[in-house]
Amino acid sequence: MIVVSEAFKSWLIGCIGLRLLLVWGLFHVFESKKNGNPQAVALLFDGKDFGTLKCAPDGSSIAYSSDVVAECDLGEFGAEKIFPLESDEAFSSVVGEALNSVSLILSSVEDSVAGVLLRFGNSECLSFINLGDELFVYKEIPSEIIKCEGLEFLKLS
C-alpha cells in the first residue's frame, strides 16, 4: 500500500523555493572504514528545520523524520558517525540552490513510496531511494533501476 505521512509531504512542499544550506550523512563506520551508503541523510533548507530521510522499517519505503541525525557508539560493532556532505559529488551542485519541485518515487514492484526526487533551480536533481533496505542517493536514477523497480514519479509541486 502506498502511503506517505502528511508531515513528510508538508515538509517537502514547505521547502520549495528555499535554498539547500546543509547536508549531513549518518554512516556506519567499522574499523575506521565508512560504509558507502548513508544510514540517513539530513537536509537543512533556509528557514526550515532539518528533515531526515532514511529507510523505513518495512525495508522498501522511504521514511522522514524531523529529528536531526545523531552519532551512536555501537561498541565492538563500530559506530554511526555524521559526515558533512556538501562537498560530495552528488550534493555539491545543489547546495546553495533553491528547491524548484518535489516528486515522490513510487515503486510498483514494492507497492511503496520508495523515495523522493528533488529538482533544483539550476536544473540539477537529487534522488533518495530505498532499494533493498539500503538508502541510495542519485543525481540521476539509472534507467535499469527505473525499469526493474517499476518506478513512477508523482509530482507534489
How would you characterize this protein structure?
With 157 residues, the protein is mainly beta. It has one domain. It has two helices and twelve strands. The strands form two sheets. Strands 1, 2, 3, 4, 5, 6 and 7 form a seven-stranded antiparallel beta sheet that branches. The chain has a five-stranded antiparallel beta sheet with strand order 11-10-9-8-12. Strand 1 and strand 2 form a beta hairpin. The longest helix is centred in the N-terminal third of the chain and has 9 residues.
Annotate the secondary structure layout.
Blueprint (H helix, E strand, L loop, with lengths): L5 H9 L5 E11 L2 E2 L5 E6 L5 E5 L6 E4 L6 E2 L5 E6 L14 E9 L4 E9 L4 E7 L2 E5 L4 H6 L2 E5 L2
Antiparallel strand pairs: 1-2, 1-3, 1-7, 3-4, 4-5, 6-7, 8-9, 8-12, 9-10, 10-11
Keywords: Membrane, Transmembrane, Transmembrane helix
Protein name: CdiI
Organism: Pseudomonas aeruginosa
- Tell how many strands the DSSP assignment holds: 12
Percent of residues in beta strands? over 45%
Task: Name the average pLDDT.
Answer: 94
What structural class do the secondary elements suggest?
Answer: mainly beta
Query: How many individual domains?
Result: 1
Biggest β-sheet: count, sense, barrel? 7 strands, antiparallel
Order of helices and strands: HEEEEEEEEEEEHE
The residue ranges in which pLDDT falls below 50 over 5 or more consecutive positions are none
Report helical residue fraction. under 10%
Which of globular, elongated, flat, extended, rod-shaped describes the shape?
Answer: globular
* Distance, first to last CA: 22 Å
Instruction: Count the DSSP helices.
Output: 2
Q: What is the alpha-carbon Rg in Å?
A: 15 Å
